[in-house]
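YM 10:42: Serine hydrolase sequence, as discussed on the call
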Amino acid sequence: MIDLPGSDASARPGARAALDGDGTLLGHRTRWAVELLTAPEAPRDEDLSAHFVPVFLARHPQGFAATLEQWRALGPFTVTDYQPVAHKAWVTLQGPSGARSTLSLTLDSTGPIRVLHLGPEVAVPPVHGWDDLERALEQPGVAWSALVTREKDGTTDTLYAKDAERPMPNGSSYKLYLMRALADAVASGSVRWDDEVTVTPALRSLPTGDMQELPDGTRVPVRETAYKMIAMSDNTAADLVQDLLGRDAVERAVEEGGHSDPALLRPFLSSHEVFEIGWGAPELRSEWAAADEEGRRRLLARIVGPLTVRGSDLGPTVHQQGLDWHMSAWDVARVLGALAEDGTRDASGVVEGILTAYPGVPVDPARWPRVVFKGGSCPGVMMFCWLLEDPDGVRFTLVLQQRADDQKLIGDGQFLRGMGGRLIASGLLSGTSR
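YM 10:58: structure's back
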């Protein structure tokens, strides 16, 4: 069984040795970050610049060293858990009082650290049965849905479902439809993986991701852009792909991907448009909420141009006004399955490589040799979904969705992601739960 950050286990034996023995760039960066908290003296800001992307240090006008001193004051720390997953890592640290914290780290695509955060450990309860999942997700003020399926020999069985037919806002899972549309375009020959897209002010979005920081006019191969869109959930990458394909092509992919009510995703919004309408001028939100499909398309045509919204403007939830991408858990499962088939058919292996680059949580590759993952979030919205294939080719799909009117009720996603990891490691999918 694989424990996750926030596990009910105490210290994992050999956690420090696992961190010290990780020879990857992620392991190197994570060890350096842990040593920032445990070294006898804290470094100066000028000594940190080579290890972070410039925007990280720019977010700390008083200097990151000041924040680092606050973190160090909670120590000395002992490493009790280390979980590396692709370009992200989580380290559980125990302080002298026994209190546990999680140091989370994300690498930029160019190598330096893009995100480094220390916060209290989020406790994720064990999962031994579906009732454990229900007890954990039943929270005041939070609506949720879940779906777990098994597909074998062309037959799909539902292992668990809770409000799985109810449309829910899903955040970045809309990028699954963009990937489907792109795979279709490449298969038809209208787009090649080596084609390039160009970063422009009108297509620059907000994080997540790092492509928003590229200079105007930067040209990026479609293959790299698609990778960042899925594996790093890069919003600017997604908007570049949508601009390349056209809104109509993505809306066709929604229908062909099996969405139960495609009108919910018409017009198909870019992340840039959601940010601009959702947290820009208040009259835009009112107009969007009151308009029909044609009225909304006219509104989108009027707001073409550079984004006026900053990340600090985000806050109040807007999914209630239709400013998100609404999909039921079954809709998510269907598009995941369709993408898995795209990956199987693509002789180049590019689609498969992109889909399986980031599994979201630590998984046992012997138990799950193929994992497709996507997460999504917006204020008041959190979702995670997985398609897992066992060595016999049996496919399992897991979808977890949360929605609230207050983002604080949902948090930063560590809890829901952890619940997904718990479920995957529990044995419930394959009937071997302990």
